[in-house]
């Protein structure tokens, strides 16, 4: 097995999908949690001056989506056909759109504009994406997004819904298939163990 080292800050963010895949697949890796004060030193040694960065036997990879797609391919979580991989990519892209909108709101300096961006993210973009996910699950009829088994799509959506359900336990009540998928993924023993351990160390 290759030596994996994942570098990121002390929070989930754009690295969490990779951590979830490592947990699900039961693959050992070094989780290099970079302290803010140490980041300037590491930054020039990353491919694009950003994290997450994955090292595979010392080969450095940047960009969270490239990293997640690579691990999904390696761990058999990227669908069984080229079409399934493409369908999974669609879900990953929808999640990236949400993340980018959230980051834009976070970094907005003008308080009025910030409030507007947060409102759009929470009241428009998230419900719109959740409705898309519900429709995908309705089409698949297997309880998983694509095909008859768990993929990167199920895990990346779980990463999003976990935070939503944690802050509002009833959040998914209007999306019954998504709620079922969320509970199914969350009850997989490796995922449950990972999430429980993560919660125990969260500050
Ligand atoms: N498109 C990139 C965005 C990466 C990104 O924005 N990383 C942030 C943390 S979430 C970062 O490294 N910030 C520190 C910096 O830019 O110096 C990806 O998906 O990996």
TrEMBL record:
Domain GST N-terminal: 2-79
Entries under Pfam families matching the protein: GST_C_3 (PF14497), GST_N (PF02798)
InterPro entries the record matches: Glutathione-S-Trfase_C-like, Glutathione-S-Trfase_C_sf, Glutathione_S-Trfase, Glutathione_S-Trfase_N, GST_C, GST_superfamily, Thioredoxin-like_sf
Biological role: S-crystallins are structural components of squids and octopi eye lens. Contains relatively little if any GST activity.
Keyword Cell membrane: no
Domain GST C-terminal: from-to ranges: 81-203
The name this protein goes by in its record: Glutathione S-transferase
GO BP annotation list: glutathione metabolic process
GO MF term list: glutathione transferase activity; structural constituent of eye lens
Residues in the signal sequence: none
Family recorded in the similarity comment: Belongs to the GST superfamily.
Source superkingdom: Eukaryota
Keywords attached to this entry: Eye lens protein
Keyword S-adenosyl-L-methionine (UniProt): no
């Amino acid at each position: 097995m290759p030596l994996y080292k994942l570098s990121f800050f002390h929070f989930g963010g754009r690295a969490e999908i990779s951590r979830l895949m490592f947990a699900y697949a039961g693959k050992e890796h070094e989780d290099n949690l970079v302290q803010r004060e140490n980041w300037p030193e590491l930054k020039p040694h990353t491919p694009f001056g950003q994290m997450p960065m994955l090292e595979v036997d010392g080969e450095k990879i940047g960009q969270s989506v490239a990293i997640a797609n690579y691990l999904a391919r390696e761990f058999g979580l990227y669908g069984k056909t080229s079409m399934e991989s493409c369908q999974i990519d669609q879900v990953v892209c929808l999640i990236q759109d949400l993340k980018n909108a959230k980051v834009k709101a976070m970094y907005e300096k003008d308080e009025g504009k910030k409030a507007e961006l947060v409102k759009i993210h929470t009241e428009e973009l998230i419900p719109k994406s959740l409705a898309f996910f519900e429709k995908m699950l309705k089409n698949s009829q297997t309880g998983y997004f694509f095909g008859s088994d768990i993929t990167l799509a199920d895990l990346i959506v779980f990463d999003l819904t976990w935070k939503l359900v944690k802050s509002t336990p009833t959040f998914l009540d209007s999306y019954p298939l998504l709620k079922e998928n969320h509970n199914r993924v969350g009850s997989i023993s490796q995922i449950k163990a990972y999430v429980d351990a993560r919660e125990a160390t969260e500050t």
